[in-house]
Amino acid sequence: MASFVDIINSDKPVLVDFFAEWCGPCKMMAPVLEELVGELNESGKVIKVDIDKNPNAALKYQIRSVPTLILFKKGQILWRHSGTAGKEQLKQMILSHAS
Q1: Annotated catalytic residue within 7, 23, 37, 95
Q2: Superfamily of domain 4-96
Q3: Which of 2, 14, 20, 88 has its CA 20 to 30 A from that of 81?
Q4: Residue 43 appears among annotated catalytic residues
């Protein structure tokens, strides 16, 4: 399995969902992100990072609230959002960085 660093260094955009099991809004985002994955095809990836199981990642990216969504491409942060977001907004944002 590829490491987190390998994944976010991809040439394709990678949306990282920093979440926690106890977080209500995170649970609301889960089906939105699952639908998004189905629509992205090969244009980008979506991965989930549990901040309670990965405190170092949460610390490194200064995650202060969940959910926090960060879009990476080639290891660079292109976009960051705390709170829930709509599928179409996320899809357009990922596709705009796909080429």
Answers
A1: 23
A2: Glutaredoxin (3.40.30.10)
A3: 2
A4: no
Please name the helix (run of DSSP H) or strand (run of DSSP E) that holds residue 95, with its range, or none.
helix 87-96
Return the CA Rg of the chain: 12
Distance in angstroms (rounded) separating the CA atoms of residues 51 and 71: 16
27 is catalytic: no
First to last CA, the chain: 25
Digit-coded pLDDT (tens) for 10-44: 999 999 999 999 999 999 999 999 999 999 988 99
pLDDT tens-place string over residues 38-63: 999 889 999 999 999 999 999 999 99
- pTM > 0.85: yes
Please provide residue 73's backbone torsions phi and psi, each rounded to the nearest 5 degrees.
Answer: -150, 125
